[in-house]
Structure formats: C-alpha cells, structure tokens
Amino acid sequence: MSQSKSRSADEVPPARRPDSPAFLLAQLGAHAATKFAERLSAIDLSPPHAGILRFVNGAGGISQQALAANLRILPSRLVVLIDELEGRGLLERRADPSDRRSYALHLTDKGRDTMKAIGRLAREHQDALLGALSAEERDQLASLLSRVADQQGLRPGVHPGFSRVRTGKSQAEN
C-alpha cells in the first residue's frame, strides 16, 4: 500500500503563469497602481491628486471645465480634488482674463516642488516595476503598449480611472 502525498491546508500548489496577455496586463496594472499609490502616500498624495498636478503642470492656465473634459471626470468630483490641492497650497485658481466667469489653474511654487517629488517617485516606481527588463526591452514594451493604448482609444497621459474617481463629498451624494 503506497502512501499518497497530501498537502496541508496551508500549502498552495505552485501556480502556472497564465499565457493571456490581457490577464497579465490587468494583473500588472492593478499591482502597479497599488504600488504607485503607496509611494505617493509618502508625500501625502493620492493618484488622482498627482494626475491633476501633472496635467496642470503641462497645461498651466487650463480651466477647470477643460481639465474635467480632458481627464474625463465629472466636474463636481474635480472641484473637490482641486479644493483639496488648493487648500494645501499646491495649485491656485486665477481669474481667466478672457472669461471672468472662469478660473485658470496654475501650480504654485510648492506645487512645482511637489511635481519634482512625484517625478522622482515615478522614476523609482518604474525602475522597481521593470527591474527585470533591459533598457532596450523597456523601450520595446513601451512601444507595444502605446500601440495597444492607441488602438483602444485611450487618451495619452490620462489614466482611465479618473472617470471612476470618488471623493468623500461625491460618495455621500451618490
């Protein structure tokens, strides 16, 4: 009588990595987003805050309405996030000289310093995430992923999660 080998409840059989690129993209995307959020928390920011600062940095003087359209976020949700960033002295609303009913968004000096910190964190994040790849492989991966993103109609530089952003205020309203 042979003894069969049984696993205890604590032992997990080794998993075979799925061959599906779509699954791997989803798995890595969720992992990368979680890890980047952890890095941002060190400077007391959330990913939506960092994304807003990044966009305003590249399009200084953009109106709140234009920013909401570009990020594909509800204006009411964006206002809450902008209020938080303005309250922390990272950006400011200035009257738009061409439309007195509108405000233009600009980074403050503190906001520009914060962008430098975000850039440093992003580089560290990328190096940690893609440490298994050579520089040439990273470039190839970026090129392939850019083609897929373009084919899917994703807006360059805008995280699709903005359309699902929830804020304390808007959660109570929902």
List low-confidence stretches: 169-174
What's the level 1 CATH class of the domain at 45-157? Mainly Alpha
**Within the CATH hierarchy, at the fold level, what is the topology of the domain at 45-157?**
Arc Repressor Mutant, subunit A
The main β sheet shows up as: 3 strands, antiparallel
Helix content: 55-70%
Indicate the radius of gyration in whole angstroms.
21 Å
Secondary structure layout:
Layout: H1 21-41, H2 47-58, E1 62-63, H3 64-71, H4 75-87, E2 91-96, E3 99-107, H5 109-129, H6 135-151, H7 168-173
Antiparallel strand pairs: 1-3, 2-3
What does this structure look like?
Helix 2 crosses helix 5. This protein has a domain at 45-157: Winged helix-like DNA-binding domain superfamily/Winged helix DNA-binding domain (Arc Repressor Mutant, subunit A, Orthogonal Bundle). The chain is elongated, with a radius of gyration of 21 Å. It has a 3-stranded antiparallel beta sheet with strand order 1-3-2. It contains 7 helices and 3 strands; from the N terminus they run ααβααββααα. It is mostly helical. 16% of the residues are buried.
